[in-house]
Backbone:
């Protein structure tokens, strides 16, 4: 693409007369029709995917986020080593207070469930909060938001791209933890047919498939949290504020979920259904709690999306 | 100078930009607004009913002291902020409703450069281009290279933005505005914080952009930084547009005066009054009056004929800076 269509036109000179009624001034503009070279023939979907890939590179290419993912992935390794030192393979005993701990001694695959359970309390939500809280507020902070909108990226389009990458980040966090936990568990503990919480034993492959579905469920929970984070992110120019607000929300919700007096609101808390994935470790699978969990995630996604959309399409960008 | 010079309202049925008067169906105005107003939540009026008229092909200097509403106006023009009332058009397209149609043809630099510090200049431009739904990805690399070349940043293309100097950052922002062929470039304080060399570089860039036929809308709080490149100016004062028109017209608004240095100011003033020169003034040993089209040689002869001892005689035209200060009310007022 060249700029030949604008080059070679006359240099604007001082126009005579008043501005608005001055045809001479208009004549000093580009002689020809303004060039539209650079207009892609590709459709909006391909253009969206291009923006999405750029956003993926931005988020996953950033050293801070890479370090964050690496730190989160180290946790299952540390947990595995710690538990290996605390309990002997095949023995019945072990430290109490951790779900699936009794099963781990007999089967390393349970390290996956243990890691997800433990890291869901704070570590994974925090990682998701960093990415989600950064999504709009971070752009505002760098001063890049106004330039993206002036491109124009489109406000709603920008939100969809940002959220799509938040979902990918949630998947990366969840599956990163699951993969490292599975590998560590296999290395440090015996591995074989899986005895589920309901006492049924399924083949190893079946156990791993269940673990994958657990990871998907947790990723859905984290994606829903990411949506809340993005909604908060549209309200501020300070990414750290959005990250902190989301973290406080998670911790507050978890505390409320553990206070029996608040039982009436428990099902509505954003974190309440996160651990319902243990339904997948029973035969038959209690689909009721899983579906209610997914419904909760979906509602929080819709609510957050509505807040983000309302705020972002009506607010002045002053950063 | 309180009498604001406003252009006649150009908009009729053809819209703000007066498309009917323009050749080839193009609107005559690259930027137009009517009654554009921004009132902040606190009640403060940042922009107060301004009627911008920026002819296509002009280099329009949007001037005013800091806080006079320039950036808020630019934010409204670009669809970043929503006007409280009034209308705005870019290239004949109403804003902010038509942002998706108008903005691909508009390059902009708003309130300083804004880039990711952890990306190189080149990667930052690639990011801008990827966000543009109408940009062709196949030509992206070539266009990015060309834009960097135009601002002289090709050598620093791979350097991280955080290591750029202020001038380089500013130039990268201009490069971003040149990623595609544009019809209008909006530059908000492009020389802010630059040293004289950097300011000159930016001025040169503006000249080259304008020479390729692109309309340039450039804001500054320093008239001197843009007066050499502008064909038109708009002057803001406390949210109001107090002057708009060709620079030549602004110059005309200040009358040329004749100044006589003499030991007999009273007698000299008497001669000037007799010649019906408007606005005679005496300040110490100096007498001045508007020239009003008369020949200074003739006046000199008259003074000599009246036996007024002349120590010095000169014709003075107030500098644009003085005009600007008078308009924006900054600094001391010059005689009027």
Residues:
């Amino acid at each position: 693409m060249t700029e030949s269509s604008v080059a070679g036109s006359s240099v604007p000179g001082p126009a005579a007369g008043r501005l608005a009624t001055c045809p001479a001034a208009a004549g000093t503009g580009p002689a020809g029709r303004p060039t539209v070279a650079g207009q892609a023939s590709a459709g909006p979907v391909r253009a969206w995917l291009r923006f999405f890939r750029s956003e993926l590179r931005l988020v996953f290419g950033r050293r801070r986020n890479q370090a964050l993912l690496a730190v989160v992935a180290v946790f299952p390794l540390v947990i595995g080593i710690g538990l290996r030192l605390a309990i002997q393979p095949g023995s019945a005993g072990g430290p109490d207070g951790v779900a699936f701990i009794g099963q781990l001694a007999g089967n390393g695959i349970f390290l996956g469930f243990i890691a997800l359970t433990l890291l869901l309390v704070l570590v994974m939500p925090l990682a998701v909060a960093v990415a989600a809280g950064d999504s709009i507020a971070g752009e505002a902070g760098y001063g890049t938001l106004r330039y993206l909108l002036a491109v124009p990226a489109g406000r709603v389009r920008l939100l969809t791209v940002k959220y799509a990458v938040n979902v990918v980040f949630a998947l990366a966090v969840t599956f990163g933890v699951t993969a490292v936990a599975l590998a560590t568990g296999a290395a440090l503990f015996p591995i074989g047919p899986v005895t589920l919480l309901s006492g049924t034993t399924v083949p190893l492959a079946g156990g791993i498939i269940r673990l994958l579905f657990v990871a998907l469920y947790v990723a859905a929970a984290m994606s829903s949290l990411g949506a809340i984070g993005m909604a908060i992110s549209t309200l501020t120019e300070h990414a750290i504020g959005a990250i902190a607000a989301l973290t406080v929300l998670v911790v507050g919700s978890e505390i409320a979920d553990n206070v029996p007096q608040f039982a009436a609101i428990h099902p509505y808390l954003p974190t309440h259904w996160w651990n319902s994935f243990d339904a997948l470790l029973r035969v038959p699978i209690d689909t009721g709690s899983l579906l209610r969990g997914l419904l909760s995630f979906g509602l929080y996604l819709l609510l957050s999306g509505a807040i983000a959309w309302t705020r972002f399409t009506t607010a002045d960008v002053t950063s | 100078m309180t009498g604001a010079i406003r252009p006649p309202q150009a908009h009729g049925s053809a819209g703000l930009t007066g498309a009917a008067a323009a050749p080839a169906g193009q609107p005559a105005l690259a930027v137009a607004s009517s009654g554009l107003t921004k009132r902040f939540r606190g009640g403060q009026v940042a922009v107060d009913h301004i009627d911008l008229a920026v002819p296509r092909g002009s280099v329009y200097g949007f001037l005013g002291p800091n806080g006079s509403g320039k950036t808020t106006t630019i934010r409204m023009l670009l669809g970043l902020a929503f006007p409280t009332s009034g209308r705005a058009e870019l290239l004949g397209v109403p804003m902010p409703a038509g942002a998706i149609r108008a903005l691909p043809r508009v390059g902009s630099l708003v309130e300083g450069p804004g880039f990711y510090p952890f990306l190189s200049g080149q990667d930052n431009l690639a990011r801008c281009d990827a966000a543009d739904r109408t940009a062709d990805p196949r030509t992206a690399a070539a266009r990015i290279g060309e834009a960097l070349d135009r601002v002289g940043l090709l050598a620093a293309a791979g350097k991280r933005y955080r290591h750029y100097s202020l001038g380089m950052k500013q130039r990268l922002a201009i490069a971003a505005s040149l990623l595609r062929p544009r019809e209008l470039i909006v530059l908000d304080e492009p020389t802010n914080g630059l040293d004289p060399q950097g300011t000159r570089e930016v001025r040169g860039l503006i000249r080259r952009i304008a020479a390729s036929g692109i309309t340039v809308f450039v804001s500054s709080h320093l008239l001197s930084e843009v007066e050499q490149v502008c064909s038109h100016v708009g002057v803001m004062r406390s949210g109001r547009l107090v002057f708009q028109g060709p620079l030549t017209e602004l110059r005309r608004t200040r009358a040329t005066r004749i100044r006589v240095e003499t030991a007999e100011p009273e007698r000299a003033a008497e001669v000037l009054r007799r010649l019906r020169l408007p606005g005679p003034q005496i300040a110490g040993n100096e007498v001045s009056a508007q020239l009003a089209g008369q020949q200074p040689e003739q006046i000199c002869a008259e003074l000599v004929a009246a036996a007024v001892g002349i120590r010095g005689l000169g014709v003075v035209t107030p500098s644009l800076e003085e005009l600007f200060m008078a308009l924006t009310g900054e600094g001391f007022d010059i005689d009027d």
User: Anything to note?
Assistant: Residues 1-14, 19-23, 331-336 of chain B have pLDDT under 50 and may be disordered. Residues 203 and 229 of chain B are 7 Å apart (CA to CA). Chain B touches chain A through 77 residues (CB under 8 Å). The domain at 19-252 of chain B is CATH 3.40.50.300 (Rossmann fold).
